[in-house]
Amino acid sequence: MTETRRLGRGMTWTFIVLMLALAATCVWLGNWQMHRLAEKEALIAAVDARLHADPIPVPPSTEWASLDLEALNFQPVSLTGSFRYNQTVTVFTSLLDGRGPASGPGFWVVTPFVLANGGTVFINRGFIPEDFQEAAIADGDNGDAQVTISGLFRPGEKAGFVTPGPNTSDRIEWVRDPVRLAAMVDPALAPIAPFYVDLPASAPGELPQGGETVVEFPNNHLGYAYTWYGFAIVAVVMLGFWIIRERSDRKG
Question: Is 1 part of a structural domain of the chain?
């Protein structure tokens, strides 16, 4: 008769400790996800309140170097100055489920806006279908008229590892990054703000089609927390069954 091989006492306790450590780690990860859930819900509530607030004056250029960009994300701001339409840059995009009639492959129309009190902010005037790209950059008007506009404050986008370089001849960029956009315009427009502003929707059917800001925060933390807590329960239950079987084998 073949004798059943069992773990020694030292190995048995090592296995028990490892399984309990695994369960404790899963519980810690679940608690961390719950903490992240609370932070995400607080962020969503803060942004929602910010979106419905009255516009504040855009921060002056003297404060740009020390701005907390994320703290102002989606904050309505007002700006006084003048557009430089002849310096417009188009940023490729593909608009899905647009709020206006235009959608599909196209471009964001981003135009420098020279502030009355100094400095330049890039203004995302809205979306145009790709067939209108050449017309968007052909405007030779300097737009010296002073106007006051309002829109949503947005931190600049960051280029990814595979993001192409700019197409300077056709004035096409791939991300709304003020640093990259600044390289496409007249250096005399400096200083350039480290953020841009999205304009709201204009008249129906008018291009560029504004009001296309996406306000979305993925929030899967509760599901992740339940998953980690589930792993912890499974680890403890499996350990319990294993201990019962080991005791039964030893008695046998």
Answer: no
